[in-house]
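[agent] plan:
  1. take the single chain provided in the ticket
  2. run structure prediction with default settings
  3. attach structure tokens to the ticket
  4. add a short note for the reviewer (M.T.)
[agent] executing step 1
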Amino acid sequence: MKNSLHNLPVIVMVAALATSLGACSNMSRQDKATAAGAAIGGVAGSVLTSGSAAGAVGGAVVGGVIGHEVEKKK
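[agent] step 2 finished; step 3 output follows
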């Protein structure tokens, strides 16, 4: 139970960030994919490293790069 409470602030922050990005209708598909990848990667990195801030940041970076590359402009 303690671990899930420890991760709660990170999860809430990432959810708030993802929700606020939904209001950015002028973003390109690539920008949206980058933001979504960063949000998902941040949560995944935090969960995989038991709430480590470095894990969350690393996951966000990797997720953002993957999202950016997946939606490359053609």
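[agent] step 4 note for reviewer: The chain has a mean pLDDT of 81.
[agent] ticket updated
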